[in-house]
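# step 3/5: fold
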Amino acid sequence: MDLIAPDRQIHPDYVQTVEGEPSFDYRNIDGTGNHTVHFELGAANTTFRRILPNEYSDQISAMAGINRPSPREVSNVVCDQGAPVPNELGSSDFLWQWGQFLDHDIDLTEGNEPFEPAHILPETGDPFFDPDNTGLAQIEFFRSRSHAGTGIDATYPRQQMNMVTHHIDASHVYGSDPVRAAALRTNDGTGRLKVSAGNLLPFNIDGLQNAGGNGPELFVAGDIRANEQVGLTAMHTLFVREHNRRAAEIAASNPSLSGEEIYQEARRYVGALMQGITYNEFLPALLGPNALTPYTGYKETVSPAIFTCFSAAAFRFGHSAVSETLLRLEADGQPSPFGHLPLKDAFFAPERLVTEGGIEPILRGLAAQEMSKIDVKVVDALRNFLFGDPTAGGLDLVSLNLQRGRDHGLPGYVGARVARGFGNVSSFAQVSSDPEVQSLLAAVYPSVESIDMWVGGIAEDSVNGGHVGPLVFHLLKVQFESLRNGDRYWYQWDMSAAEIAEIDGTTLADVIRRNTTIGAEISDDVFHVN
């Protein structure tokens, strides 16, 4: 993708030129200074990039999809999952878990509460959200924060803000602002990150912003969503341990280094690991081998900014892959004495790691269980019990996905295809070869043109060797090539040959084994089930 300066989408009266020097030895924590000319490109608190035409109902800012069906109706009719269908490529739950962990490194939208509610209204008598037939139920939703210099007119339509750095840089481990980054460090000359008893994440005793509440009962990490579910929390814990392991290694071999130097070197290494595992293991498992063009070096004409359509639709494919239950296994393959963990009981539940065996049972389970097939079906834990009971503030992730796409002005599925050079689609049979999917889509959408981008994307037949259909494949390919080619600190550009070889020779299984008690019970490729 050619470079678009961050201010190109913003009305000139609202453009603020931020002066600063490019970063050199290490990344700035907020992502500034990566590009030597466009200081804010890829930084936290900058806009997403729009590569598809907007479909705001007024072409400015009013939500798209005013003629589309209710998000909850689509969820109930199309996405209700019966018996789980395993994927056909032998991929493990680590595929969707890494996808979530990675996603929280590169994008975060913040709701404009309480100023822009756009709550979703379930049908009267919805068995989960309105069991008492009141007609008053709603699924809470607030529109995403947007840049003040957008949503002004059709020339400068509404553009949403990414609250974290766009780069793959392990910002979810370290933070995307100096205050959070400093609060996560021991600041004792060792270069390490804080941990709590049991070598778990630290608790939020400083009251930093945190999803689920800012109190000390939840863990705190570089990203506010670290407590969302215990599989994700286990991944955060693993990479804090990897930072501290590397920091100790650096300090032992370089006793003259300061704590700051140790921290930055370990941070540089962990960010490179995020990149290496993503491109060497995760993307081939997801898209198939050789999906991306070969790397030929940093391109200052390429923007690394996250696409609006990637954040609000394409990279949400994994919600279909999530399992209803998180397996928890002992080293011998037997279930944990605490049992397997229903996903609906895993949300914002740090005590599951503190008192029920730590991160090892969860990690073994992610490696052992086949993930669900990526299709239009989503488990009840996400569709009816997200973050709580539906009558007590719980949510429906499918409804949120559809409403978020409309909030961000995404075109429908057909419009997205046409805009990216795919052929037009005029019948439901052209969306999916599955007759059941065709009939479900036709039951709720009046025409193929009204299909939301997210549901149409995951309804498509998968490409050969991959888990996603042509539209999602294309958008992921273009986004991940841009993230790689537009990053001046990409590990294959920034590191020595020996360091590159070390990163390329390190798998997620290696990271797990050297930071836990897990050994040969997991395979060298944890993204596939043995």
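# step 4/5: annotate
The chain has one domain: 6-105+136-513.
# step 5/5: archive (pending)
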